[in-house]
Design a protein that fits this description.
five-stranded parallel sheet; five-stranded antiparallel sheet
Amino acid sequence: MPMRIAVCEDNEIHRDIMEHLLNRYSSERSVPFEFVPYEYGRNFLYDMEEGAYFDAVFLDIYMDDIMGNEIAHKLRAMGYQGEIVFFTASADFAVESYDVNAGGYLLKPLDYEKLKMVMNRITRNMTPSTYQIRQRTTVTKVVYHEILYIESSNSKCILHTTSGGAYTVYKTLNTIEKELSDRRFLRCHQSFLVNMDHIRQVGKQLLLSNGIYVPIRQRGVKPVRQAYVDYLASRSTEF
């Protein structure tokens, strides 16, 4: 089944350029997709409210009828879990893009190599990494992005998810950390492993996207903050 990609851009020339670059990527990587252009952001939102679905949405920040970042916030409020990518002539909203877990931030004029890096990551996420939890005769697969944090509790660990669910894992936190082996997971405390994609604020504790505070190890605030900053910087190079 082809990827469905929406592009919200009020400039026809830029829409055509984006379609050309995506066609080039599709041809080079043999990734079929359906390209759906929108001149007006509100028309796109109407379609989404009516049940349309796209695997990825490219949003121009500055559009005549509605700002792209406003569209992104509305999408997340609607429960949209697909990829959101901003493209614009200014980097002013780059930091804000993290609030909606944007998968990319491209500057105009569009550069094919940078678009390719974003698309490579998006296509990888189409088959996301999962963590397998064995419970008696069943195996539950939890997508990495849905993991908020994992806490150690005596001889077991509790894995908390974005949906509010929790799973008991009869392993040490050290073992789980090695099994995940993914840079997004930060050992912020002896008893806590947190998904940095869901960090919203770093203070004496970590504030996560669900409003929960996770402790930071004693005298560990500075290195934890630096690790988070480095992670954000590494993500921005993919944009």
